[in-house]
């Protein structure tokens, strides 16, 4: 068959009232480009602030920071793959896509599914390990400890299963991007909906656990509200995850796959950014203090371990946790945060710069 004839065959029959348009079709390509470039740039900025704060200002990198770096690399790789797919024509209606282009576009989508599982796992592990470092001591085994470990288990177990499900979604594997091959495939659309639902559950856990822990701290209400506000950014991520699930549902029945997947992909880029921001937010106050000259590198009592080798939770072993006293003055829980240990014990005293070590 002549190549020119094959090139004019659409990936699906146009619906009534529509005709295939390969030259100047309706497309979301511009929107994909704007969102991809914006989210990748902002992701690199917030992760750079986090790593600079931990590595330079505090000289105290933790394993959660390396997970954040891995997640940032995954986000750039996924966004770049999705953008490339869009530039090749994937952001059109399916009847405006040439059938001859479908195998390549499907292969790029296959790679994106694999990247998604790895990237989302790393991003959420970064947040959960950070919460563990902040709220859990080496000895404590309270509900906060088990809640965080439960979230870590669900995140790792599900994304490991999802990774292998996406890799081996078809038998033979090549059928994932070549529909002409004989074989069988799992319902990838249903797997996508389940993935969105599981991530919504994890986002809710990441939001609720720190708020519950803060509620049980004995500190002024104003401090609680200020501290909760940083973690409260997770509300936005939960909202993003809800819409992500809603956008995935049409994959179960709508044959216009390229259009639906483009909508899901755009929102996935937003979801990635929202997730990475949650883990980086606690670094920003400390970073801005440093930029304004109000913080000195290395001076922090609230890193993963102070000079005594104890975490913040070790300093407050009992529940409800108490605010320490220094003479007749109260030692407040100040929102001079760093990424490793959010609620920093700091003695606020006029004309003095005294830092109390955890004991």
From TrEMBL:
Q: Where in the cell is it found?
A: Membrane
Keywords, A to Z, come to: Membrane, Transmembrane, Transmembrane helix
An example GO CC term for this entry is: membrane
Q: Where is the Rhodopsin domain?
A: 49-284
The cross-references to InterPro entries, in alphabetical order and at most eight, read: Rhodopsin_dom_fungi, SAT4-like
Q: How does it sit in the membrane?
A: Multi-pass membrane protein
In this record, what's one Pfam family?
Answer: Fung_rhodopsin
Which superkingdom, per the lineage? Eukaryota
The keyword Membrane is assigned to this record:
yes
TM stretches of this protein: 31-53, 65-84, 104-123, 143-168, 188-213, 225-246, 266-284
Similarity comment text for this entry: Belongs to the SAT4 family.
Give the protein name, as stated in the record. Answer: Rhodopsin domain-containing protein
């Amino acid at each position: 068959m002549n190549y020119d004839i094959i090139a004019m065959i659409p990936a699906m029959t146009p619906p009534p009232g529509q005709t295939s348009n390969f030259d100047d079709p309706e497309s979301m390509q511009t929107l994909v480009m704007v969102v991809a470039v914006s989210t990748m740039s902002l992701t690199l900025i917030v992760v750079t602030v986090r790593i600079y704060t931990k590595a330079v200002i505090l000289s105290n990198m933790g394993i959660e920071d390396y997970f954040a770096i891995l997640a940032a690399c995954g986000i750039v790789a996924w966004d770049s793959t999705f953008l490339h797919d869009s530039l090749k024509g994937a952001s059109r209606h399916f009847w405006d896509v040439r059938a001859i282009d479908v195998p390549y576009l499907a292969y790029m989508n296959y790679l994106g599914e694999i990247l998604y599982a790895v990237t989302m796992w790393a991003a959420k592990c970064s947040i959960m390990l950070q919460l563990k470092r902040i709220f859990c001591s080496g000895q404590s085994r309270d509900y906060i400890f088990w809640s965080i470990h439960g979230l870590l288990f669900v995140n790792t177990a599900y994304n490991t299963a999802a990774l292998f499900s996406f890799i081996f979604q078809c038998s033979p594997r090549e059928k994932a991007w070549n529909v002409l091959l004989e074989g069988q495939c799992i319902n990838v659309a249903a797997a996508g909906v389940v993935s969105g639902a599981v991530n919504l559950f994890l986002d809710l856990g990441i939001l609720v656990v720190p708020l519950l822990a803060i509620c049980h701290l004995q500190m002024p209400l104003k401090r609680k509200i200020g501290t909760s506000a940083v973690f409260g950014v997770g509300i936005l991520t939960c909202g993003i995850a809800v819409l992500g699930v809603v956008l995935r549902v049409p994959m179960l029945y709508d044959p216009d796959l390229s259009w639906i997947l483009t909508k899901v992909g755009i929102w996935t880029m937003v979801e990635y950014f929202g997730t990475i921001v949650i883990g980086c937010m606690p670094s920003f106050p400390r970073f801005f203090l440093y930029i304004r000259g109000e913080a000195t590198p290395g001076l922090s009592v609230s890193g993963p371990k102070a000079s005594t080798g104890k975490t913040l939770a070790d300093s407050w072993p009992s529940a409800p946790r108490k605010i320490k006293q220094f003479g007749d003055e109260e030692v407040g829980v100040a929102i001079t945060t760093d990424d490793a240990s959010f609620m920093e014990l700091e003695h606020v005293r006029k004309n003095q710069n005294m830092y109390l070590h955890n004991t």
